Hints:
Layout: H1 3-6, H2 20-31, H3 37-43, H4 48-51, E1 55-56, E2 64-65, H5 82-116, H6 128-137, H7 147-163, H8 177-186, H9 193-203, H10 212-242, E3 248-252, E4 262-268, H11 271-281, H12 284-292, E5 298-303, H13 304-314, E6 318-320, H14 325-330, E7 336-339, H15 347-355, E8 358-361, E9 372-373, H16 381-396, E10 410-414, H17 418-426, H18 434-441, E11 447-452, H19 463-474, E12 477-482, H20 484-491, H21 505-514, E13 519-521, H22 528-541, E14 553-557, H23 563-575, E15 578-581, H24 592-603, E16 609-611, H25 615-633, H26 646-650
Parallel strand pairs: 4-5, 4-7, 5-6, 7-8, 8-9, 11-12, 11-14, 12-13, 14-15, 15-16
Antiparallel strand pairs: 1-2, 3-10
Helix pairs in contact: 5-7, 5-9, 5-10, 5-23, 6-7, 6-10, 9-10, 10-22, 10-23, 11-16, 19-25
Amino acid sequence: MSEEKKKKKEYNFRDMTTCESTIQMLQKGASEGVETAFQRAAEMKACPIGADSACCKHCFMGPCRLNSKDPYSKVGVCGATIDTIAARNFARMVASGGASHTDHGMTMLDLFRDVLRGKIQDYKITDEVKLRSVAESIGIETEGKDIRAVGEELYAELERTYTQVEGEIPFAKRVPAKTLELWRKHGLVPRGAMREIMEMMHRSHMGVDQDYENIVKQCSRTALADGWGGSMVATEISDILFGTPKPHVAGVNMGYLKEDQVNIIVHGHEPNLFESMIASVNDPSLVEKARAAGASGINLLGMCCSGAEVLGRHGIPHAGNFMSTEAVIVTGAVDAMAVDVQCIMQALSNLSECYGTKFFTTNPRARIDGATHVEFHEHTPRECTDNIVGMAIDRYQRRPARVEIPHRKDLGVHGFSHEYVNYMLGGTFRGSYTPLNENIINGRIRGVAGVVGCTNPRVKQDYVHVELVKELIRNNVLVVQTGCSQISLAKAGLMKPDAAVLAGDGLREVCETVGIPPVLSLGSCVDNSRILIACAEMVRTGGLGDSIADLPVAGAAPEYMSEKAICIGQYFVASGVYTIFGVTFPIIEGTKFHQHLFEGLEKEGFGKWGFTTDPLEMARLMISHIDKKRQALGIMGERERKLFSMEDRRS
């Protein structure tokens, strides 16, 4: 590293993250003259006008910058008001975020089609029960049909999720009737993802839709095409092909790197690459090649959402969430990192070069300047992954002199799919959400909160996630998790059953009876669709209202950083869930557009947005909302316990 870089400002990394492994690596990196997103965020202030969405650059009469302190004091060159400008900006975030997850889903659907038709031999249908269940959930008759015939019908139906130009997406059949009725009343039921994203981009173009409430309607329809469409397809097809997750005890943190083995990390979002990499690292010829190079074996780890999927599906250790992806390279122990799409920092390419780590892009949609590109093709996946493993073995023999692996290892239980929760609560023959609903009704469980999303260098890594969840479970709120948030919680020990000691008396009793942690890990960020399915099942089970908006539930993305998160938040709000974000929010408080998202939508029967950066205030707002819903349902306060006789049970 250059002398100039070595003389850079010193930082207190404990102000930037609570992750001890990341702190250790940031200190090592600083001593070696390298920088990460933590330092760059400290050096580069966020643009205040852009952060408030008071800037419009959708045409070349601008860019137009409005005064965020007095937003109605002027308008853009075309006359656009702050509400129009902010709504357009918000709409484009929803469109971009929705496109990311729906494209992921379409990749999975393409893979499913070619597996069914025998064009792809390396993957297979792993969960036939799930395939039939998904087909039946959208009205496909399965009795008496072989699995491939059912699969072909399912493919044809799910393809409409993307390509249909009129009608309703297939998974609209899963939406509670009252919620679906509200969507139809307001014209929000998605047709097809391509149609909705295209129309959203058109309507946010200069001189088209200039009514913020009308723009929000299309925001909702586009977002719902993701949550109940593209993302749900991605989750369900991944389960069908690679197996529906069941709980695994699995490890999280950089301590799972091994000094005497070839360490390979897969980072990204689509599971195809990782599934093939699992096969490659277990290939006897490649294992023998690693041993011949002096290693005792090959060690595979995940990062970000690719890692979250296999953490729950296969129990493969996870090295860290988004804000640790640079820090893990600094160990010097990573022989190869292979990435596909989404949440990949461009800085990883240069940083990997500093430490001699082999850095590979694999997806034609996501090349990075300076990275080695080894293209991944589903029809011949091992050509890519075997090649990467081979080059990782070569690098093992040329590791830098200074390798430093943090000792921290954290265990947790991961892999709580909707299907397993159903089984967990009632067994094979009596699987049901009834025990969950009953324990909410009787007050042992106050409600359910989804705490999801990324980590962001503008706030202290992991801190808001952990403190929020501790406060929620202390107040008897069961927490479900997806994405990088669950890695934050796993490092804090909250994914273990013994974490129930931190919960309130009622939640602790339920957790100890069932044998679960008070925080349930559901998968990657695309698997937020599992939370939607769970909400729909709670409504269907009964006793907690007729729509998702009636449920005593709330959601939060405390440290979000991407446009995908905005789209996810909007599809939860449109589904009926109070959803709070931290870090920042891209709207000026007090504007009509802000009031519409934070108050007006709820008055129309939807959920609403919330914002705060303080974890305890976030918990207070979520609990207050849950209590408001309990009050409306008439279930405030504990109910008398009833011991059921055998006759009661039979009935």
